Amino acid sequence: MKIHHTNASGWLGNSGKISHPFWVIVQKEVADYVRSWRFVILVALIVLTCAGSMYTALTNFSKAIKPNDPEGTFFFLKLFTITDGTLPSFFVFISFLGPLLGISMGFDAINSEQNRGTLSRVMSQPIHRDYLINAKFVAALTVISVLFFALGFLIIGLGLITIGIPPTAEEFLRMIFFLALSIVYVAFWLNLSILFSVKFRQAATSALAGISVWLFFSVFYNLIINLIAKAFSPSPMATEYQVIGYQKMLLNLMRISPSQLFSEGTTTLLMPSVRSLGPLTMEQVQGAIPSPLPLGQSLLLVWPQVTGLLAGTIVCFALSYVAFMRKEIRSR
Amino acid sequence: MEENFMNVRRILLCLFLSVLTGLSTATAYAASDSNGVTLYTPYTKISVSPGQSIDYSIDVINNSKEQQTAELALSGVPRSWKYQIQSGGWNISQLSILPGEKKSFSLKIEVPYQVNKGNYRFKLTAGANIEPLALTVNIAEQGTYETSFTTDQPNMQGHSGQNFTFRTTLKNQTANQQLYALMADATRGWTVTFKSAGQSVTSVEMEANSSKDITVEITPPAEIGAGTYKIPVSAETSSTSAKLELEVVITGSYSMELTTPTGLLSAEITAGAQKKIQLSVRNTGTSVLSDISLSSSTPSKWQVEFDPKKIDKLLPGKDAQVTATIKADKNAIPGDYVLNLESRTPEVTAKATFRISVQTSMLWGWVGVLIIAAALGSVFWLFRKYGRR
Predict the structure, then answer these.
(1) Do A289 and B333 touch (CB under 8 A)?
(2) Are the Cβ atoms of B355 and A289 closer than 8 angstroms?
(3) Residues of A in contact with B341 (CB under 8 A)
(4) Is there a contact between A286 and B375 if contact means CB atoms under 8 Å apart?
(5) Best of A269, A283, A302, A315 to mutate (most B CBs within 10 Å, chain B)
(6) B299–A288 C-beta distance less than 8 A
(7) What percent of chain A clears pLDDT 90, i.e. is strictly above it?
(8) Domain spanning B147-250: which CATH class is it, in words?
């Protein structure tokens, strides 16, 4: 946070009452984020890619409606998922660029203040110490939430203009839950990078650490899983239960990666016909009608994934909180 | 000259002999006439039934040396009979025959329908000097002047909901062409259709002395009890009519319906849990149903139990309540499954297809909430421990 000469009007609420010091810090942080070039570049990147995926989705929209599709009544949701293969769809872009946004917003949260010497000056104010890290997190989360909801509603609005049919209440709720899940996902990477920014004195180190974790999960983790899959692949004579056990083991390994949790969650929320995320036996499939799940059941299906992401976010935050509170912040 | 004279004598002798033999043959044909004209037909006694027509072919033979004219007339014919004398395409009453030749003509007699049994004699006369030809017509049966409407099989048995098809024959035995109106005097609810040559008809036009096959299709009302029902059908014109009574024996129908009291055929169930569904078995037929057994075809590892397992007797129009306890597989995936329930007797089966929405247990949802609450609680604890100092 840069220390400006503050004027009273900026620190006052609408009613003219003096705001709580915590919210004053949050407002300052939000202002800093929005004015920084880093954020503008990232937002431009995300808006451009989303516009691209939106364009492909709208041009291929007529082809995406097939007869006897159990998701036929949910065609508004297809805006987020359809693609013609040239550009990934919206939710794939979010799962790819979201972590980058989170890392870039958090990697220098603490250490850059410390390096500039502003940390001890802020701490000399009559505020609690944890206000700073909490405000950093809340401000970043606010910016991300506003950005994602703005993007989401932009797509809904554009879809309304081009398709001309409003989404149903359930579709709308599914989109809101999808946006909320995206925010949780980005919040995870944000907290991870805040943790690094507390741990590492150099901003570049913490940025590299965050990006390497992201790269590891998005590129190398799949390679490692493939190696394990080959090593443990069951013989052709294996029984059905052995094959299912093997598939379940691979899937559980994949689910260590936050991006896997996110993609499973978004797939279930945006494609109501997804009824199961694991391998299925013939016994489970027999007699089943291909029909969309109600929203409650879809949520229940992805609840473990949501729990995992949320818990990971909270654990990262708790760790960075503890680390920050125990940190020696006076010297350079 | 002597020789010529001898020749002339021989020719004269031959002529004389031939005239002699000609005369003798003429006497052999019929009673010899003064002027040598004879009427001839081979069938002088014919047996026919009423309404038929007789076509005589009669020869007039002129044995004389002159041209003869026959005045043809029929006498002794009853007034209601009609006759025609024709030759060469003309109606004639006189016929001239060259000497030594014969001429044939036809005599057509139409026997009416209304005629008594017996022999009818009449004479064909050809003039004062010619022996008349005696003809006899034997009417083999008592003639009628009416319509007949008959069937070989006037009685049929079946259950309600079945069509009864009677094959009937309508005969116009009157002398005129008739337009028959076909009518059925069935009680309300019955449908009677007349068909002629595959087409549904309400009237048929028939030539005199012709017959037509008419199919009568009878559909009983849907809600009809067992019993014997008489369906009078008739063919009528202003002058003649014929009635026929058809009989349909209804044995009663077997029909059953399996549904729920509300008619709702969907239910929600939690995977691994039980759900009770009220079923109602209804006898929609007209016969008593007995030994109704209930069965189910379910997705694999599902169970359905019925209480009671069997219904001993169900009267027509009544329904019985059955409770089906459905137990879903604990590994069932959320979403819709098809479940078929069936009630069965040897006579009839009824099927109900249910759409069962499986929901997963909320247990793991609450576990997830607990984990998140624990994580938040730890953060809160951290706030309390480090935050305010």
Answers:
(1) no
(2) yes
(3) none
(4) no
(5) A283
(6) yes
(7) 22
(8) mainly beta
- C-alpha span between B134 and B387 (Å, rounded): 148
| Structural domain includes residue A264 | yes
Contact B263, B319 (CB under 8 A): no
Q: Which residue out of B304, B336, B356 would a mutagenesis test of the A interface target, given it has the greatest number of A Cβ atoms within 10 Å?
A: B336
Total structural domains in chain A?
1
| Site of tokens 């110490």 | A129
- A330 has pLDDT over 70: no
Contact status, residue A185 vs residue A97, Cβ threshold 8 Å: no
Neighbouring-strand partners of residue B118? B139
Interface residue of B333, B338, B353, B388 to substitute, partner A, most A CBs within 10 Å? B333
Query: What CATH class is the domain B256-361?
Result: mainly beta
Q: Tell me, yes or no, whether A332 lies in a domain.
A: no
Task: Name the residue with tokens 């995300």.
Answer: A46
In chain B, what residues touch A294 (CB-CB under 8 Å)?
A: 357
Count CB atoms within 10 A of the CB of residue B292. Answer: 23
Nearest C-alpha neighbor of B160 from the set B224, B210, B106, B99: B224
Minimal Cβ distance to A307: which of B337, B372, B383: B372
Q: Which domain holds residue A59?
A: 8-325
Question: From the CA of A318, how many Å to the nearest CA of chain B?
Answer: 6
Question: B70: which strand partners?
Answer: B95
Lowest mean pLDDT among A8-12, A229-233, B99-103, B277-281: A8-12
C-alpha distances in angstroms, B165 versus A110, B196, B227, B235, B286? 98, 13, 18, 17, 22
CATH architecture assigned to B35-139: Sandwich (2.60)
Q: A50 and A88 in contact (C-beta within 8 Å)? A: no
CA distance linking residue B213 with residue B224, whole number of Å: 29
- The pLDDT value recorded for residue A16 is 54
Bridge-based pairing state of the strands B191-196 and B210-219 = antiparallel
Q: Range(s) for CATH 2.60.40.10 in chain B? A: 35-139, 147-250, 256-361
Query: By a Cβ cutoff of 8 Å, what residues of chain A touch chain B?
Result: 128-130, 275-276, 280-289, 291, 293-294, 296-297, 300-301, 303-304, 306-307, 310-311, 314-315, 317-318, 321-322, 325-326
- Nearest by CB to A311, from B331, B336, B372: name it: B372
**Amino acid letter at A264?**
E
Query: Do B123 and B130 form a contact (C-beta atoms < 8 A)?
Result: no
Q: Which residue of A has its CA nearest to B334?
A: A275
Q: Exposure pattern of B264-281 as b/e (b: 16+ CB <10 Å)?
A: ebebebbbeeeeebebbb
ipTM over 0.90: no
Give which of A286, A291, A329 to mutate to test B binding, by max B Cβ within 10 Å: A286
CA distance B333 to chain A (A): 6
pLDDT digits (tens, 9 = 90+) for A19-65: 788 888 889 889 988 888 988 898 898 888 888 888 888 887 777 77
Q: What is the pLDDT along chain B (389 residues), one digit of tens a residue?
A: 445 555 656 665 555 555 545 444 444 444 444 567 888 899 888 888 887 888 999 998 888 888 888 888 888 888 888 888 998 888 998 888 888 888 899 999 888 877 888 888 988 888 877 888 888 998 888 777 778 888 999 899 888 778 899 999 998 887 778 899 999 988 888 999 999 988 999 999 988 778 889 999 999 887 777 888 999 999 988 888 888 999 999 887 788 899 999 988 888 888 888 999 999 999 888 788 889 999 998 888 888 999 888 889 888 888 899 999 999 888 888 888 899 999 999 888 999 999 988 888 888 888 888 988 998 998 888 888 876 65
